[in-house]
Every structure is written in C-alpha cells, then in structure tokens.
Amino acid sequence: MARALTRLKVTACRASAVFALVCVTVFLSLRPTSAQDLSQVLYRFENRALTLGRYGAVAVFQERLFSQAANCAGKSAGSYGAPDGIVGAKTRQAIIDLQTCLNASVRAALGAESYGAITVGLWRLMMPAQMPPPDAITRANHLTFALEGTDYDAIQFNFCQSRNPRSGKRYLEGDPWCYTNDPNAYLTWGPRGATAGAGAEIQQIVFAAERANPGLLNAVFGPHTDAMHRLALGNNQSAFDILCAIWIDPDRRADFTARFARYGALSEVQRAYRRVYDAANADGGKIARFFKIYAALKPVIGRDPTEIDLAYFIDMATHGMAPPGNVSDLSAKMVKFASRTRKVPSPGELRRQLAAWLPSQHKYNDRIARDAIFLIDDPEITLSDTHRRIWQQRSGLKASDFGLSDHRYVSDYPVAAPTGFEKIERFYTVLPEDKRACPANVRKSRRP
C-alpha cells in the first residue's frame, strides 16, 4: 500500500561570533525514500571546476549555499566568491562549512561523505520546492556546456579573427590582410556555438524569441533593432554584410556587443535558444537518431540508453558527429557488434564502438579527449596512456562529475517541433550604406 507523503523538518542552529543564534530551517517534502536517494551526487568538483552557467538554477543554489555556509562558519558570504555557476573549490568549501550546522544523521542522509559534492538532499535542503534537483537531461546538457565554456551573454565576431602568419597581427590591429580560420561563421554566440553564417542558428533563435515575445528586440537593441530584423530575415550574404558593417565600426561594435549580452541574459531568449537546438531539424533530431539505434539494440542489451549514453549523444550532436538520417545500417552494425559473444558489451564498450563508426570531422585529439569523458567511468574500459594524457590536457572531466551514471536509464529525449523559421523565404536585406561599410579585403579573406 502506497504510503502518504512525509514531511521532514531539519533544523540546525549554532551561535555566531557575535552570540546571535543562526538557524537554518528547511522543510523537505518527500515521498518515502532512502538515504541513498538523497545522497545521489548531482555535481562533484574533483580536479577541474564545472562551468555550468551564470543564468541557471545552480547559480541560485550557490547564492543560498554561500549565505547559509557563511552563517555556519562565521565568515562573509563573499569569501566564497560570486554565485557564478562554476562549481569549484569555493563551492566545495562552502558545502564543507555548512556541515557544522547539521547533525550527524542529517549529514549522512544528505551524503556529506561525498566530499564537497552537491547531492539531491543538499539541493533540496537549500532550494525551494518549485526548483527541484536538475534531472539527467539537464545535467547531460551541463556537461556539454562545460566543454564549450561559453555562456548565453557571450558573442564573438569571426571576421578576420586570425593573425597574419607573417606579421603576427590581425586586421583590426593594423594588418592590411584579413585572415580567418572560420570564414562561414560571421558571429558565434552562446553555449552551443550558434552562428549567423551558413547554419543560421542565431537567426533562428532571434526569430523564435521575437515570435514568442514581440517587441523584445526593440527593448534591448534600440538603434540596432532594424539591423537585427534584417539579419533574422536575410539570406547568408545579408548576414555577412550586416554584421561586417557593425564589426568594422568600433563604437557600433562595442554597443552591439553590450546589448547582445543583455539580450542573451534574458530567460525568454535562453528558452528560445534551447528550443532551437532541441528541435527535430537541429540537434534534437540528431539525438533522436541515437535513441533509434539503441531501440534496435534493446532486445540484445536489455535496456534503454544510460544517463552517460544520453550525455554522449548530446555531445556528439553538438560536435557534429550525428548518425545519418537513415540509421538502419548503423543500427544493424551495432546489433551485430553487441551480439558477437554471449557477454553483452558494457555501456562504455558500446559507446567506444559507436565512436569508431562515427569518425570526427574535427581535430582528432579534440574528439578523443571528449570521448574519454564518457569512457573513463566504465570499469570495462582501459584508456591508453596517450588517450588518458590527451584527456587530462583537454578537460580531465568525467561524466560522473555531473552525477551521470551507467546504472540509471533514460527512455527518450524531448525533441521540440521546428520553429517555423525553415519555412521563411529569406532574401537580401542589406542597406547600401552597410554594403559600402565592409572593406574589400575583409570580403576577400584568407586562411592562415
């Protein structure tokens, strides 16, 4: 018989340096659960800090944690730094300092033995009920966010960003020639590397955000609003000309960059950003293809994809190594691999084989360093010394640092519908003055 919801009240008090009583009183509304559930790790800092973003629930968690830990330790909340979404040494210290306000049974229930880790119980202790612990999908996306290392308020113009191999200077530093190693990405933005070039992800995000929130562009971009509308509706050549005209003017570039930072910090814009990437015609569709492969594998391996599998799918989609549109051949190859012996391959062994059949279009060391993140937790996998060294040099992160496990499973991924941007007939939207503003040498860029 199902038991009713229980309500656990945890009260911890201590006297501060000025003899004032500091109390932390938190109500946890829980279904009957075990201490193991509460001690499940969500995020754990070991050797490398986890960059999870300034604009999510983790930063809110840090703000609350730092305040309570400071009361417990009799120090300033500022001693832990800003609540910046980076889970590192200062966050770990705050968690350790908080332990003095908790009795032994509470510490054990919340997983205090996980040295400085953010656990399910600790999250519930700090956060309101309407902000539940981040689920596996959120944490899997955080892993890719940590690898990309760019927040929603950061943009980068890609015009002439490379140095002339001879002079060592860039175009904006006085070199007469324009060198770029990314000629088709005129502007890059945010945690998934959205571009305004051939992929037009930035245009799609702007379109989706404005459609859901009319007037948002005008409220943020002011004098650049018309240019943003023309960018969203324009073709690829329009994107080049419009953005080049902004980039080449120092004052205009600085103002545009500052306004874009404010735009990216808005939750409405971040929702549009995630929706574009979760769409069936974007990364969401790529991730769905991985799930189709594992649906074919399920009769052999007896399970759905694991949490670490999911994180691997997301990272592969972000890095451009998705399965082809028709996955039947690859599925058949994976089923044959998984069936070759009576022993079912481990999750890591399946991921490693899948990687072998989806070779990287990026630098070899970059990809194998990322692959190691999803292999290192599997006891059936032994990395070579070279592979381990490359992984340590690039990130040193593990999927388990984000609380992801090969012993919990994810049945599907919430793929969003396309935004409708793909149905728009885009055209040339450039004003004569913008076209004149972009120098001829910028138009004739060279590779370094």
Overview of this structure, please?
- This is Peptidoglycan binding domain-containing protein.
- It is built from 20 helices and nine strands.
- The model is unreliable at 1-36 (pLDDT under 50).
- It has three domains: 6-134, no CATH class; 155-267, no CATH class; 283-402, no CATH class.
- The chain is globular, with a radius of gyration of 25 Å.
- By secondary structure, the protein is mainly α.
- The longest helix has 19 residues, at 283-301.
- β1 (6-15) and β2 form a beta hairpin.
Summarize the structure.
The protein has 448 residues and is mainly α. It is 46% helix and 8% strand.
Largest sheet: 3 strands, antiparallel
Cα(first) to Cα(last) distance is 70 Å
Question: In the residues, how many domains can be counted?
Answer: 3
Arithmetic mean of pLDDT: 90
Shape: globular
| Quaternary structure state of the chains depicted | single chain
Order of adjacent strands in the largest pleated sheet: 7-8-9
Percent helix: 40-55%
Organism: Thalassospira xiamenensis
Protein name: Peptidoglycan binding domain-containing protein
